[in-house]
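Quality-control log, excerpt.
Job 1 of 2 completed; input and output follow.
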Amino acid sequence: MIKIILRQDYEPLGKIGEIFSVKNGFARNFLIPQKIAIQATPANMKVFEEEQKQVQKRLNKDKQISEKLSKEFESLSLTAAVAVGEEDKVFGSVTAQMISDLLKEKGFDIDKRKIILDEPIKALGVYNIPVKLHSEVEASVRVWVVKE
């Protein structure tokens, strides 16, 4: 048996940073070459702790940037012009991709997968659309759906 430290979450074993005893072959042939784990020696423990500090600093910086961006989103208003038929029935719909394109026009490069739409918008009106900027930060963007 060999003691290892997980460098990333690995479903069959556990979460990042946990220490386990596993069979030598499993560690040497799979976990260590795949960079899922490292051997739990005193030197590796120090290296792992330093890596985690660096990762935490990066995550904190990303979170601060996301919080700043969410404040900018509060005052942002997007207009999606759509074709309508009789009785203001919308042809097609406003999708996450369209909202992403509108944000790009305003200078924000947000991936469409971060825009949370339960279903595409199929009616005229004003909508507050949630955008997941970070795992802990969510902003809301106001989208006006109007006639072309």
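Job 2 of 2 completed; input and output follow.
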Amino acid sequence: MAKMALGFGFKGIIKSTIFDQFCGGETIRECKKAIDLLASRNVGTILDYSVEGEEDEKTFQETCSEIKRTIDVASGNDKISFSVFKTTGIGRFDLLAKVSSGKALNKAEEQDYSIVKERFESICKHAYEADVHLFVDAEESWIQPAIDALTEQMMFKYNIKKSIVFNTIQLYRKDRLAYLKNQIKTKNHFMGFKLVRGAYMEKEAARAKELGYENPIQPNKESCDKDYDEAINYCLEHIEKVSICVGTHNEKSSLYCVQRMSELGLENSDSRVYFSQLFGMSDHISFNLSNANYKVAKYLPYGPVSAVVPYLTRRAQENSSVAGQAGRELSLINKELKSR
């Protein structure tokens, strides 16, 4: 998705409405107000440089450098709990798709992918050296195998004394609980997992139909909820080597995690278990958990207004298609964008 060109008037409307509600600012410096506000409520920040959909090497390198800046700001800063990045922010989507498919790369592609791997590791190494927890975001199913492979390698290399690198598990996919369990069963090093229900649902279904393969998405919400809660349970039962972030706006899943922690004798403040919601959404979940001394961090997107619009649009699309407070809160984004 190319960067959207916004007229001055529309940009002003976006910035003063949905951007201010869901984003921290256009730069890390502008995020300080939101970071301090969250910290005053005992909630940490996850700095999320939300520029996406670019395809040129210059932007990939700039994004890589910006992600490292988020790590630098987070280092030694108890107000910032995690850094995060998307692999498509540092490498071409089509290249990740080809690697994921198992097809042989030509020489030029091998060279390009070598650069992607170098960027990926440089970010993870930077986080390790700065002692900052790092999320690798999940993406579409047809590029996820490449992302998984890179993340698994970095977990093995840098999760030495504790979980530094976290993979993201999208439980709206019917195969991901099995993947999660297999990783925990077969690996002995420390592991980190961010558990989400997931984005890209409509996109996944459309591609599966178009290409004639089985839809990877859960058959219904009940199946997704069941797998999500089982993922929480399985991680908590292996907490000696697994750290998790329960990334959800679902009150029942949040309560389930709280109950299982109590049953397993884990302290509310156990730093191996975090809860996370998006900035501007589900504050009642975030603040009630933090008030009870659980570890909580909000995703705080930032970046140029025109470049972050795709992120906001995707959040609207993924949440307006399901029931719950997330869809209600983000419905205004669709209305704003569709009126233009």
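Post-run check on job 2. The first helix runs from residue 8 to 22.
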